[in-house]
Amino acid sequence: MLRSRLTLSIVVAMLGAPLALAHHSLSGQFDTTKSFQITGVVSKVDWINPHTQVFVDVKQANGTTITYKLESLPVAMMRKSGLSKSDLVGDGRPVVIDAHPARGDMPHLGYLLHIRLPDGRDIQFSKVPGAEQP
Predict the structure, then answer these.
(1) Per DSSP, what are the bridge partners of residue 122?
(2) Which among 78, 103, 82 is positioned nearest to 26, based on CA atoms?
(3) Is 77 within 8 Å of 53 (Cβ atoms)?
(4) Which of 33, 53, 91, 95 fits a disulfide with 46 by CB distance 3.0 to 4.6 angstroms?
(5) Which residues lie below 8 Å from residue 115, measured CB to CB, with a gap of 6+?
(6) Rounded CA separation 75/46 (Å)
(7) What is the pTM of this model?
(8) In the chain, what are the helix, strand and coil shares in percent, each to the nearest 5?
(9) What region, left, alpha or beta, does residue 10 occupy, with left being phi > 0 and alpha being psi -120 to 50 degrees?
(10) Beta pairing partners, 55
């Protein structure tokens, strides 16, 4: 009996190890020393854990549209900040977003730091580099 419990514990630990390693640190995937700002329309929100994902369509000067994928907080923390999925999806009016850029060659991927919603609400998720007060 003791041997089967030990074997089961080892198997469970081995199966769970890849999940623990799969979660990344913020500074491992995003350059936390930099930020960029975009203005666009939220086209989709994946209201999922471990990270909510917000997709923002940004119209370029030449008329094309680029979709940015922005990771954010878990659902519970988004709710705690006063947001719902419907707040983010909005009504087609533009939002202003500050985000950390992704590391590597992924120019349209970022981590959400701040969002200004069409209704005027400002939601701050993390510090924006260079925005520190003297």
Answers:
(1) 116
(2) 103
(3) no
(4) 53
(5) 54, 88, 95, 96, 97, 98, 122, 123, 125
(6) 10
(7) 0.76
(8) 25, 35, 40
(9) alpha
(10) 44, 69
CATH number, domain 26-124, options 1.20.120, 2.40.50, 3.30.870, 2.60.40: 2.40.50
Instruction: Write b or e for each residue in 114-125: b if 16 or more Cβ atoms lie within 10 A of its Cβ, otherwise e.
Output: bbbbeeeeebeb
Domain boundaries, the chain: 26-124
- CA-closest candidate to residue 99, choices 40, 48, 21, 59: 40
Q: How far is the C-alpha of 36 from the C-alpha of 98, rounded, in Å?
A: 6
30 CA to centre of own chain = 10
- 120/21: higher pLDDT: 120
- Whole-number Å distance between alpha carbons of 112 and 36: 10
pLDDT in tens, 94-112: 999 999 999 998 999 999 9
